């Protein structure tokens, strides 16, 4: 694919950059449109949860991608953005978070960033709005086990500096989504970066909780769980790491 032309819209305050970008995606906005905000009055997590951050303390952004993937591969798109954010943090300040399936970046058990990916179908093929919040100078709500770049590294990074490098890293990974070989490479990088692999986890599904050992991710980024010897593949769910089980993370 030709290199992506990023068009970055900045908002001092907005309800949610994801909400804004989903609306633009429905209007057939092209790939590469990016929204970032200093403050969100209604930042969203998954399942109607909230994403909270004081003004200017985080990177709060959403990125419109139009990869040539099936809806089943959504988790690989999430991985593409999460791995790019991780690589950007390594480059800027040496903080190397692990990924927690399906959508967190963590340092130890503390959440440093979260992703919300939303699919828009129809119009010009599949669109994915990848929203990410990265705690830079504030570690998130007091009742949440969370951390920030400042806490981890002593370095103050501005949101726009991180966004710049994140888009640079995304430019390396985004084309991989369009080919079989590229998706396999992304899947391997994802597998290596996932703290979840080798962990005994509890997965809260809508129909109830399941306990098992996370053994790998499949080619679409779905989590493969060993539940008493039976393999189960999960495409969504809330993972709680219960305790380490042998091998652990890469
Ligand atoms: C997420 O959801 O982690 C996805 C967060 C995505 C936020 C970005 S910001 C830019 C874009 N625009 C949006 O409106 N959203 C995206 P989830 O896994 O559901 O986690 C939500 C939970 O994380 C909350 O219920 C809190 O427990 C916790 N949380 C909220 N704010 C946090 C923060 N700043 N740091 C760490 N944890 C936080």
Give me a quick take on this structure:
By secondary structure, the chain is of the alpha+beta class. The chain is built from five helices and twelve strands.
Q: What's the layout of helices and strands?
A:
Elements: E1 7-14, H1 17-26, E2 33-40, E3 58-65, H2 74-93, E4 98-100, E5 104-107, E6 110-120, E7 127-135, H3 149-153, H4 159-173, H5 180-193, E8 199-205, E9 208-217, E10 223-227, E11 230-234, E12 238-244
Parallel strand pairs: 1-2
Antiparallel strand pairs: 2-3, 3-7, 4-5, 5-6, 6-7, 8-9, 8-12, 9-10, 10-11
Bound molecules: biotinyl-5-AMP.
Biotinyl-5-AMP binds next to α1, β3, β6 and β7.
Description:
This protein is α+β, with helices and mostly antiparallel strands and about 250 residues long. The protein has two domains: about 5-195, BirA Bifunctional Protein, domain 2, CATH 3.30.930; about 200-245, SH3 type barrels, CATH 2.30.30. The protein is built from five helices and twelve strands. The chain has helices at about 15-25, 75-95, 150-155, 160-175, 180-195, and strands spanning about 5-15, 35-40, 60-65, 100, 105, 110-120, 125-135, 200-205, 210-215, 225, 230-235, 240-245. The protein has a seven-stranded mixed beta sheet with strand order 1-2-3-7-6-5-4, with helices on both faces. Strands 11-10-9-8-12 form a five-stranded antiparallel beta sheet. Helix 2 (about 75-95) packs across helix 4 and helix 2 (about 75-95) crosses helix 5. It is globular. Residues about 245-250 have low confidence and may be disordered. Biotinyl-5-AMP (BT5) binds near residues 17, 45, 46, 60 and 133.
């Amino acid at each position: 694919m030709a290199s992506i032309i990023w068009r970055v819209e900045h908002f001092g305050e907005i309800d949610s950059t994801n909400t804004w970008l989903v609306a633009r995606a429905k209007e057939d906005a092209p790939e590469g449109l990016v929204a970032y905000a200093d403050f969100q009055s209604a930042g969203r997590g998954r399942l109607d949860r909230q994403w909270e951050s004081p003004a200017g303390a985080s990177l709060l952004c959403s990125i419109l991608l139009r990869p040539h993937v099936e809806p089943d591969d959504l988790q690989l798109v999430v991985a593409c953005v999460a791995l790019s954010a991780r690589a950007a943090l390594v480059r800027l300040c040496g903080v190397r978070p692990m990924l927690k399936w399906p959508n967190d970046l963590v340092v130890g058990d503390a959440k440093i960033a979260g992703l919300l990916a939303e699919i828009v179908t129809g119009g010009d093929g599949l669109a994915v709005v990848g929203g990410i919040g990265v705690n830079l100078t504030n570690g998130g709500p007091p009742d949440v086990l969370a951390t920030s770049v400042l806490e981890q590294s002593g370095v103050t990074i501005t949101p726009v500096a991180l966004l710049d490098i994140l888009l640079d890293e995304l430019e390396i990974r985004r084309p991989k989504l369009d080919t079989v070989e590229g998706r396999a490479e992304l899947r391997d990088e994802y597998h290596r970066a996932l703290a979840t692999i080798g962990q005994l986890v509890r997965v809260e599904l809508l129909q109830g909780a399941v306990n098992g050992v996370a053994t790998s991710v499949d080619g679409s980024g779905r989590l493969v769980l060993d539940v008493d010897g039976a393999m189960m593949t999960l495409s969504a769910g809330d993972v709680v790491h219960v305790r380490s089980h042998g091998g652990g993370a890469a």
